[in-house]
Specification:
The protein is of the alpha/beta class and 303 residues long. Bound molecules: pantoate. The site of pantoate has 10 residues, from strand 2 and helix 6.
Length: 303
């Protein structure tokens, strides 16, 4: 893997399509699954960016303690077949504090935005810099951050970026907990509680399979797994449309059921995505429950 510290260095690569996997490091199989997807899609150069973006952390959030391990990330990126690892110092990304920022509305106004004001503006600004500076043909984002994916898709459409945004499935540990760099801060007890998010979402997905369509009823399935559990504080549970991220009374279009909860000292988010089954006269929906790993995650064996 070639390590590039500047945009100019990163742009020196072979011919053909370029796929970009933007990350904040502390890699796990979720990130690595995008590298494999980029290869499978025919991207000749797979770039990964690794930058803990200060603009997307609010005061009192975990910027300082966000997990970082460059050697570990380099080894994992190399093994996964990343061609260029763009790991800029802050001075390359922000030589001076930026006077220009991307303002996002619509899908950036709900869910996470209520607890994390300014977060999506920070994400959009840094993603804009990555797209402008690295000029990929495709960029890969995980569906675990379903709202982020909606915001990035909307921004790319609104601002006419010549890039295809590709969403990848949620990758889960064997206990169902969605992979996240922040899982490293969960205690053994928290980890058991964290699996409640998955159980709740799967109960809701089962209910949809059995014909339930009411948003509140689906949300209640998730809450039932979390309310009253020691150390767990639910922030929100909401059924939202996949593109606009607007609350849905009824599941009647592509949507995701999202949950955010504090478990111990860690704020976790997770979701299950629903798509209408094409041509089904019964109005069926298929749930994307994510991919459950049957092997031990790299989060447990490396670092
Ligand atoms: O999803 C992330 O890791 C970050 O929000 C991203 C897209 C790399 C922007 O900093």
């Amino acid at each position: 893997v070639k390590i590039a510290r500047t945009f100019a260095e990163a742009r020196v690569h072979g011919p053909g399509l370029v796929g970009l996997v933007p990350t904040m490091g502390f890699l796990h199989e979720g990130h690595l699954s995008h590298v494999h997807a980029a290869r499978a899609a025919g991207d000749a150069t797979v770039m990964m960016s690794l930058f803990v973006n200060p603009l997307q952390f609010g005061p009192g959030e975990d910027l300082d303690r966000y997990p970082r391990d460059f050697d570990r990330d380099t080894a994992l990126a190399e093994e996964a077949g990343v061609d260029v690892l763009f790991a800029p110092p802050v001075e390359e990304m922000f030589p001076t504090p930026p006077d220009t920022r991307v303002e996002v509305g619509g899908p950036a106004s709900a869910l996470e935005a209520r607890s994390r004001p300014g977060h999506f503006g920070g994400v959009a600004t840094v993603v804009t810099k990555l797209l402008a500076g690295l000029r990929p043909d495709r960029a890969y984002f995980g569906r675990k951050d379903a709202q982020q994916l909606a915001v990035v898709r909307r921004m790319v459409a609104d601002l006419s970026f010549p890039v295809e945004i590709v969403g990848g499935p949620i990758i889960r540990h064997a206990d169902g907990v969605a992979l996240s760099s922040r899982n490293t801060f969960l205690s053994a007890g928290d980890r058991i509680a964290a699996a409640g998010l998955y159980r709740g979402l799967m109960a809701a997905a089962d209910a949809v399979g059995a014909g339930e369509r009411q948003g509140r009823a689906l949300e209640a399935r998730v809450r039932a797994e979390l309310i009253g559990k020691p150390g767990v504080h639910v922030d929100y549970v909401e059924l939202a449309s996949a593109d606009r991220v607007e609350r849905l009374v009824e599941l009647d279009r592509p949507a995701f059921l999202a949950v955010a909860a504090r478990v111990g000292a860690v704020r976790l988010i997770d979701n299950v995505h629903f798509d209408p089954v094409d041509g089904d006269p019964g109005g069926g929906f298929v749930a994307d429950r994510g991919i459950v790993l049957d092997t031990v995650s790299v989060l447990e064996v490396v670092g």
